[in-house]
Amino acid sequence: MIVLSDFSFMHPHLIFKRMKQQAGVFNYQKQTLSSLMAGKDQTLQERMEWGKMRMDPTDISDVTGAVMSFLVNGHGPADNWTGLFTPGERVRLRFINAAAQMMFNVRIPGLKLTVVAADGQTVKPVEVDEFQIGNAETYDVIVQPIEDKAFTLVAEAVDRSGMGRATLAPRAGMTAPVPPLRERPLATMKDMGMGMSGMDMNGSGAMDHAAMGHDMAAMAAAPGMAAPKPRGSDVMGDMGGMKMSMRDPLNAPQIKLGPGVQTITPMPIDRTSEPGQGLESVGHRVLVYKDLLALTPNPDTRTPTRALEIRLTGNMERFMWGFDGQKFSDATKPYAFDKGERVRVTLVNDTMMAHPIHLHGHFFELTHAPVGFGPRKHTVIVLPGGKVS
Q1: Euclidean distance between CA atoms 200 and 197, whole angstroms
Q2: What is the SS3 assignment for 230?
Q3: 143-152, 186-195, 231-240 — which is least confidently predicted?
Q4: pLDDT of 173 higher than 90
Q5: Do 90 and 145 touch, CB atoms closer than 8 A?
Q6: If I label 310, which of 143, 152, 299, 323 is the partner at 20 to 30 A Cα–Cα?
Q7: φ, ψ for residue 324, nearest 5 deg
Q8: How far is CA 100 from CA 70, 136, 217, in A?
Q9: 367 contacts: CB under 8 Å, gap ≥ 6
Q10: Which of 18, 14, 12, 99 is nearest to 318 (CA)?
Q11: What is the C-alpha separation between 162 and 65, in angstroms, rounded?
Q12: Cβ-count burial of 272 within 10 angstroms (0-12 exposed, 13-18 middle, 19+ buried)?
């Protein structure tokens, strides 16, 4: 059992207060003038475009390693928690993300990970090198270390601000090299629900796509594999003179506009074939939701009787989050489901942060697979600007 968690010596109420007082207060990885001069991160034009939109592409996670420690089975990175194995044996590891806030990218350099269960439900085995795990998600993986040596288990924070670290070894006291933190990711126009970059914000608050002349982004490789990463924001082709508002209520009439709704995704897309922010160009296979197929047929294959769209809304600057524009404390009635009915629910992420959505005490079936073989899960990560059914 591998339980991932986060911990801070700062009181949670103080953490929350500081985030409400100052946006990005714990983000120590912002873009700088020196990075611009060195040709890193976004170009000057891209930075100006994002500045017009009052968006920060480095805002991947709110509570970072600046104030959090990341633990494996309750132990910090320096503790070297060790799980023992006999060379040649197959070991089943159940990863549980019990963190209050952080999502993790998990890998064991030198070992393949065969995923056999997601959220406790068996899936057809799929071999990967890394997977992203959201809050409340669980994954069962099988590893088979052949060599008589130690392997480092890495649970890297999604914003690359820190990591949890442990060791798998044939004997206690052994260690393996700990890889350095990788370069922190940047949000892209796709994370805004645009799928393209190089947009100018005009005076009316819409984006002007005229005369961009950008090249197409590098095509994706096989599912879960890395594609070449262009500098700064992802780029796509010229969109003619198309304009779109980042807060157009016509895109989601059910949303109650207010200070808690910073953006409304104009063109949400299914991103379940993508590995997650920062994992597009890691050079090895990363698990994606579309890799997951139920091992045994689902017992209920009825056609849904109705469809429901729920928008994940928020204001990243004020640290406000809600469903369809309403905070939990302001909601007057729940989403109604009748006993025994089968409903197709589509979650649309109108924010620029990934959100793990958890249905407590119940499983749902993801719809990307052939009928009857959608993986049954209780938690799913909805990527920024994306949607999941």
Answers
A1: 9
A2: coil
A3: 231-240
A4: yes
A5: no
A6: 299
A7: 55, 35
A8: 11, 9, 35
A9: 344, 374, 389
A10: 18
A11: 5
A12: buried
Q: Tell me, what's the pLDDT at 291? A: 98
Asked which of 123-137, 222-236, 314-328 is least confident by mean pLDDT, the reply is 222-236
pLDDT at 193: 67
End-to-end CA distance of the chain: give it in Å, rounded.
Answer: 30
DSSP state letters, 94-161: EEEE--SS--EEEE-TT--EEEEEETTEEEEEEEESEEEE-TT-EEEEEE---SSS-EEEEEEETTSS
pTM, 2 dp: 0.83
- Give the pLDDT score at 231: 42
- CB count in 10 Å sphere of residue 113: 22
What radius of gyration do the chain's Cα atoms show?
21
Both structure tokens of 171:
């004997």
Nearest residue to 81 (alpha-carbon basis) of 182, 178, 162: 178
Taking the C-alpha atoms of residue 224 and residue 129, their distance in angstroms, rounded to an integer, is 10
Contact 88, 94 (CB under 8 A): no
Structure tokens at 219: 């095509």
Side chain identity at 301, as an amino acid letter?
Answer: T
Position 42, amino acid: Q
Helix (H) or strand (E) holding 266: none
Q: How many CB atoms lie within 10 A of CB 212?
A: 17
Greater model confidence, 223 or 324: 324
